[in-house]
Amino acid sequence: MKQTTAIAITAITFFLFGRLSTKHTEEVIYTKAKPVSGSVQVSLPTKEIQPIEPILPYKYVFIGNTKTEVVDTAKIISDYIAERRYSVTLFDNLHGKLEITPTIQYNQLSAVPYTFTPIEKTVFRKQRWTLFSTLSYNSFNIAGVGGGVVYKNLGIHYKCLWHMRLHQAGHEVGVVVNY
User: What is residue 3's DSSP assignment?
Assistant: First the structure.
């Protein structure tokens, strides 16, 4: 009876120490993933407004001795046919980075290529010291209770053995390797 009580107390003690000793340390690493590129199909404009009094470029022409203001048609045409490319970063945060490079020519949006670089979050958990408890019984009528400690991936354990038929006690010491 004495040994059964000692075995039960040993098992409960190692179990509680094992539960209390499991403290995880975490390391969070953010890494850039493979960029995704593509182009958005541009449809017709959803709304078009014609101004009542447009602002037009003017130039001054001298006719005789009078200074006359005329619309600069060449400037309007050069502005109309010019191709303009923009580079805009829509967001750059923990989710990733989205860049668009729209192109405008002939007063129309002609292309909207984009590049999205996602950021992946990886959490590494490390647990250096681990206490554990163990209970066992085998076909030779030997019961055991014990516990041990593991540091990183290498540890030792102790087990108190009891032969049920012969009523003899024994001890076991071993090495634990976690992969």
Answer: H
Strand partners, 117: 97
pLDDT, average across residues 80-86: 93
CB 135 within 8 A of CB 160: no
Q: Which residue in the block uniquely carries the two structure tokens 């540091």?
A: 151
User: Hey, which residues does 155 pair with through a beta bridge?
Assistant: 150, 176
CA distance 97 to 88: 11
**Do 120 and 33 contact (CB within 8 A), yes or no?**
yes
Q: What gap in Å lies between CA 56 and CA 53, rounded to an integer?
A: 9
Residues 6+ apart with CB under 8 A from 62: 68
Average pLDDT, the chain: 85
CA 22/CA 8 separation, integer angstroms: 22
For residue 4, pLDDT beyond 80: no
Length of the chain: 179
Per-residue pLDDT tens over the stretch 19-58? 666 566 778 888 888 999 998 888 777 888 888 998 888 8
CB 87 within 8 A of CB 99: yes
Pairwise CA distance, residues 96 & 116, whole Å: 7
